[in-house]
Amino acid sequence: MTVWLKSTWEKGGMRMLAVQQLEAGYGESVILRNVSLKVKPGQVVCLLGRNGVGKTTLMKSIMGLLKARRGAVSYNGQELTKQAPGRRAKSGIGYVPQGREIFGQLTVYENILIGLEAARDKNAKSIPQEAIAKFPVLPTMYARRGGDLSGGQQQQLAFARALASKPEVLLLDEPCEGIQPSIVDDIRDVIRSIKADGKTAILLVEQSLEFVKSVGDYFYVLEKGAVAWEGGLESLTDDVIKKYLTV
Question: Of 90, 100, 101, 185, which one has the greatest count of Cβ atoms within 10 A?
Answer without folding.
Answer: 100
